[in-house]
Amino acid sequence: MRAITIAYMLLAIAVTPSNAQTLTIAFNQDIRSSDPGVNRDGNTDAVILHVVEGLFAYGADGEIGPLLAKSVQASSDGKTYEFTLRQGVKFHNGEEMTSADVLWSWNRYMDPHTGWRCKAFFDGHDGTKVVSATAPSPDKFVMTLAEPAASFLGTLALPDCGETAVISRASLKSNGDWDKPIGTGPFKFGDWKRGQSVTLTAFADYVSPPGESWNGYLGLKKPLVPTLRFLAVPDGATVAAGLRSGEIDVASVPEALVEELRGDPNLMVEIGTEPVRHGFILQTRNPLLKNVKLRQALAAAIDYKSLVEEITNGLGHANNSPVYQTSRYYGPVEKQGFAYDPAQARRLLQEAGYKGEPLVILTNKRDSMPNYSAAVFAQQMWQAVGLNVQINVLDWATQLDRYNTGNYMIETFSYSSRFDPALGLEQIVGPKDTQPRKVWENPRAIALTTKAMQTTDPRARQEIFDAAHKLILEDVPMIFTHNAVSAVAHNKRVVGVRPWASPTFWGVGKP
């Protein structure tokens, strides 16, 4: 019945007279909310960041740059940041943005009632503490930190924080409840038919940041179509049918469909690599897994090349580093991963005193993630060296809860994009007594992560990331297998499609 409903929805779109002026994009599920960084997931971020913008954002190379800010000046002690705002930037309701709007937005995010997922990153609970924020003049916004933090701007710019977007007060209803985002982005938030579709319309008065070409969330952000329509289509076969018929213009597709869709003369498939990191996390406080030799045996027993080729249909490449493959910091050291050596794995199990005790992998069967397939292939490889490994399939919400409380032995897990490797380390490193979700509490790892968060010099940062990678191979708190493959299929009449960490549809058109 669900497939029939979606088919009728696609047919309705196909016969709409304005379809030629609409770019129709298929996502695997609906957005969760329209409030930036609140009740969000990857699809939500992708849609909302067409509507809202922050002071700083990430470019295509993973480096940050000013977006709504024209520039920033840091004090000599590294604690105070003075942002100078771009002039002439308007909200979608026609009002001009000033520092008063930046301050109002910031105060709303830091209000516990908002439920902003990134509040802990700035109130001292999980990183930086912002002690004051002021708007001394219409084009100046000033933030003061308790301690210097080199990663401060990068954290502000995180997509899953909604870029700490500046929004208009008119985004709220008269009673203070959330209504819809009124931002400064290239598209305005239009009609949201929950469970079905979200429509965005081009903002005629949009003022693009400087740049002559696309550059991630920076650079030229000119809308080329009047309307974007994001469809929630969870069934891969329905997406493929919609692409072939022309009812869907663009869609991320599973690796298994790439070869088939490439055979259609009317379609193209673009392949890229995302900063998302897939792999296995190990509970180092578990009575069995606290033995480093057992963890090293788990790492040595996996044939990474074969596992990744099977999971990605030959499109992905193994990467055991917390630094993603397209990062400027992915160098010769990061390319040296775990060695596949079953004989060594057996020796390490003997040395660990392993006697066949069961190890349990928690996983889930989300279509958008390779977690279950990874668990099955790894189980076979681990069993081949004498490990007693069992798989426990949970729904994603339950597995995530087990992760957040540290209640697991092994989990297949996928970490969301972190363009800055320092923030990628911060996702996994920290004391478990106060943050049970953290995976790696080695004091050396914590020290390296702290140093990375405070260092700006690229050479010094490279040394830190090299050291962290070497330590992971030695300590094995987790086993990263590969970065996510981005496979984006589109009709050949659509131009400007680029696979990236998050789908962007400014600069995409149907000439």
Summarize the structure in words.
The structure is a single chain. The protein has 511 residues and is of the alpha+beta class. The protein is built from 14 helices and 18 strands. It folds into 2 domains: 2-249, Periplasmic binding protein-like II (D-Maltodextrin-Binding Protein, domain 2, 3-Layer(aba) Sandwich), CATH 3.40.190.10; 275-484, Dipeptide-binding Protein, Domain 3 (Dipeptide-binding Protein, domain 3), CATH 3.10.105.10. The protein has helices spanning 2-14, 42-48, 99-110, 152-156, 236-245, 258-262, 292-300, 304-312, 342-352, 371-384, 396-405, 421-428, 443-454, 458-475, and strands spanning 22-27, 56-58, 64-66, 69-74, 80-85, 130-137, 140-145, 187-193, 197-202, 214-215, 218-219, 227-232, 250-252, 267-282, 358-363, 388-393, 410-415, 478-491. α7 packs antiparallel against α9 and α13 packs antiparallel against α14. Residues 1-8 and 11-18 have low confidence and may be disordered.
Helix content: 25-40%
Can you give the mean pLDDT?
A: 93
Q: What is Rg?
A: 23 Å
The number of domains: 2
CATH superfamily label of the largest domain: Periplasmic binding protein-like II
CATH topology title of the largest domain: D-Maltodextrin-Binding Protein, domain 2
- Specify the biggest β-sheet: 10 strands, mixed
| Major beta sheet, strand line-up | 8-9-12-1-13-18-14-17-15-16
Shape: globular
Q: How far apart, in Å, are the first and last alpha carbons?
A: 36 Å
**Count the strands?**
18
Number of helices: 14
Low-confidence runs (pLDDT<50, min 5 residues)? 1-8, 11-18
What is the CATH class designation of the largest domain? Alpha Beta
CATH architecture of the largest domain: 3-Layer(aba) Sandwich
SSE-based structural type: alpha+beta
